[in-house]
Design brief:
Elements: E1 6-9, E2 12-15, E3 18-20, E4 23-27, H1 37-46, E5 51-55, H2 58-61, H3 76-85, E6 89-93, H4 124-142, E7 152-159, H5 168-180, E8 186-191, H6 195-201, E9 207-212, H7 216-226, E10 233-238, H8 254-266, E11 270-277, E12 288-290, E13 294-296, H9 315-327, E14 345-354, H10 359-362, E15 366-368, E16 383-390, E17 394-405, E18 407-412, E19 415-421, E20 428-432, E21 437-444, E22 460-467, E23 470-471, E24 475-480, E25 491-492, E26 501-509, E27 515-518, E28 524-529, E29 532-538, E30 545-548, E31 556-564, E32 572-576
Parallel strand pairs: 4-5, 4-11, 5-6, 6-7, 7-8, 8-9, 9-10, 10-11
Antiparallel strand pairs: 1-2, 2-3, 12-13, 14-25, 14-26, 14-32, 15-24, 16-21, 16-24, 17-20, 17-22, 18-19, 18-21, 22-23, 26-31, 27-30, 27-32, 28-29, 28-31
Helix pairs in contact: 8-9
Domain Beta-galactosidase 1-like first all-beta: 371-481
Protein name: Beta-galactosidase
InterPro entries: B-gal_1-like, BetaGal1-like_ABD1, BetaGal_gal-bd, Galactose-bd-like_sf, GH, Gly_Hdrlase_35_cat, Glyco_hydro_35_CS, Glycoside_Hdrlase_35
């Protein structure tokens, strides 16, 4: 295949000697099942785009230190090759940190086993870890560079770094590391369009871009102050937004998006829509923000953009295409055949097993003096259970979970007594009988912070547990990553039982199709379909359904397991053909 000569000539991007405006859309391969990658890419091409952009999450590709994964949903090379097949160029962002509302901003949890780790700076210990990862990742990407006959035209060295720090030595180390590994495409940074962010995030020899949702002229003017006589590009045009639990679902008018795009194209700017297609935070990969308080992101990454969560064009798709065709010649609209979506009806849960009776089936316990964090126990995601014995009698005791991350259910002699939440910390009052009692604490990691100064987000009980001011020592700890539930011993569901519990249902279908699990009537938990963790649900909204892509289903018998934290009044759910993101209620 012939190479792509993508370069800068004055204030213009050039492709093989001809001027080009880059019209790009973000789509994350790790948020879409591989079976649907080509469908989504064809739709991006049909909308008039010439480029697809994706981040590369370190935590997906090196889930344990020294263990690398580039298969299945992590097969980034296949995604790039499919983009090439449908005629798209590729912008790739393999920065060690990606933000992206993704768990820990894409950084792997095992970095936090060292409580003194320094992130995103010129720290040799951190950079050694980056180098070991890049030694595996970057050669795979180099094969697909435009200069080697592939579709990659540009690569990011770090992500919105000016929002975090100002370490030029670090940025230059990353730049030089890519060049040393034979990356010879355009290198770039992306930052907010402010003085401090550009001063912190730009670095010598690297093309700068800016991120924004509106305010085209002043933001590009600011970029040109720092980078005169160069092309201007919005690397993240925020045409939608993400949701936290307990918020209202974010939306943006299609006409407003189209108008903002037209302002960019009139200025001969290039643009990358963030997002074109959002997809889903399957598993435990949602991130969180922490401004005034901790705010975890929902499972859906619908983002209210050009394709919805299950890949259907929205009003924005057509509004944006109408703008693009004013400036660029487009072929007649030709969309792939719609992917079937089906309502399979009610599913009844017929089996159950309580968590506290299943601890040894799911975990091998550790004895520790203090209640250690997940990271100290070598755990990345999921839940963790702490247990200790308290002598009695003690009356009207104030129980304090010091810095619990993120949400804890508390039990005395296996009886639930209350919940403590990181964003709404409260003490619990308990009595300890004369014979003493067993104290149990189940902590849920609801997603590590992915943006800002609080990235070092340790999970579990991060400091300690106090009873009337007295620290409690000597704990049995059960890590519960919840990756494999095959060891659970279910029994018939005949009556209400203690919570938390696993509920199991079987249902039969003739032909797999996309569908949505309606979570009404259930309180909070995690859903698994045929062993696939399809994400978290929570009654506070705004998300009320969980997306199940057809490749997770099979003709014949299918299994759903819910890990429900607080129980339900009716042990059934509905598989519907309609997703629901609605107004949320306060998480407090």
């Amino acid at each position: 295949m012939s190479s792509l000569d993508f370069s800068i000539q004055g204030s213009q991007f050039m492709l093989n000697g001809e001027p080009i405006q880059v019209i790009s859309g973000a789509m994350h391969y790790f948020r879409v099942v591989p079976e649907y990658w080509e469908d989504r890419l064809l739709k991006l091409k049909a909308c008039g785009f010439n480029t697809v952009e994706t981040y590369v999450p370190w935590n997906l590709h090196e889930p344990a230190e020294g263990e690398f994964c580039f298969e299945g949903i992590a097969d980034v090379e296949r995604f790039i090759s499919l983009a090439d097949k449908v005629g798209l160029m590729v912008i790739i962002r393999p920065s060690p940190y990606i933000c992206a509302e993704w768990e820990f901003g894409g950084l792997p949890a095992w970095l936090l086993k060292d409580r003194n780790v320094r992130l995103r700076c010129y720290n040799l210990h951190f950079l050694q870890k980056v180098d070991a990862y890049y030694d595996q990742l970057i050669p795979k990407l180099v094969q697909h560079l435009g200069t080697n006959g592939g579709p990659i035209i540009a690569m990011q060295i770090e992500n919105e770094y000016g929002s975090y720090g100002n370490d030029q030595k670090y940025l230059q180390y990353l730049r030089d590391g890519l060049i040393r590994r034979n990356v010879d495409c355009l290198l770039f940074t992306s930052d907010g369009p402010t003085d401090s962010m550009l001063q912190g995030g730009m670095t010598e020899g690297v093309f700068a871009t800016v991120n924004f949702g509106s305010g085209v002229q002043p933001h590009f003017d600011k970029l040109e102050e720092y980078q005169p006589d160069q092309p201007v590009m919005c690397m993240e045009f925020w045409n939608g937004w993400f949701d936290h639990w307990g918020e209202e679902h974010h939306t943006r008018d299609a006409g407003d998006v189209a108008s903002t795009l037209e302002q960019m194209l009139q200025r001969n700017a290039s643009v990358n829509f963030y997002m074109f297609h959002g997809g889903t935070n399957f598993g435990f990969y949602n991130g969180a923000n922490h401004g005034e308080k901790y705010e975890p992101t929902v499972t859906s990454y619908d983002y209210d953009v050009l394709l919805n969560e299950h890949g259907v064009p929205t009003d924005k798709f057509y509004a944006v295409r109408n703008v693009i065709e004013k400036y660029l010649p487009l072929a007649p609209l030709d969309l792939p055949e719609p992917i079937p979506v089906k309502a399979f009806g009610e599913v009844k849960f017929t089996e159950i097993v309580p968590l506290l009776r299943s601890l040894t089936a799911l975990s091998s316990p550790f004895e520790r003096t203090c209640p250690e964090t997940m990271e100290a126990m070598g755990q990345d995601y999921g839940f963790i259970y702490y247990e200790t014995t308290i002598t009695g009698p003690r009356k009207d005791c104030r129980l304090v979970l010091q810095e619990v991350h993120d949400r804890a259910l508390v039990f005395v002699d296996e009886q639930y007594i209350g919940t403590v939440e990181r964003w709404n910390p409260a003490d619990l009052l308990i009595d300890i009988p004369e014979q003493g009692a067993k104290l149990g604490i189940l902590v849920e990691n609801m997603g590590r912070v992915n943006y800002g100064p609080l990235l070092k987000d340790f999970k579990g009980i991060t400091e300690g547990v106090r009873l009337n001011g007295q620290f409690l020592f000597h704990w049995t700890i059960y890590p519960l990553p919840m990756k494999d539930l095959s060891s659970l011993s279910f029994q018939a569901l005949e009556q209400a039982c203690e919570t938390p519990a696993f509920y199991k249902a079987m249902f039969r279908i003739d032909q797999p199709a996309d569908t949505f699990l309606q979570c009404s009537g259930w309180k909070k938990g995690v859903a698994y379909v045929n062993g696939h963790n399809i994400g978290r649900y929570w009654e506070i909204g705004p998300q009320e359904t969980l997306y199940i892509p057809a490749p997770f289903l099979r003709a014949g018998e299918n299994e759903i397991i819910l890990f429900e934290l607080h129980g339900t009044d009716h042990a059934s759910m509905v598989l519907t053909d309609t997703p629901k993101l609605d107004k949320g209620s306060s998480a407090e």
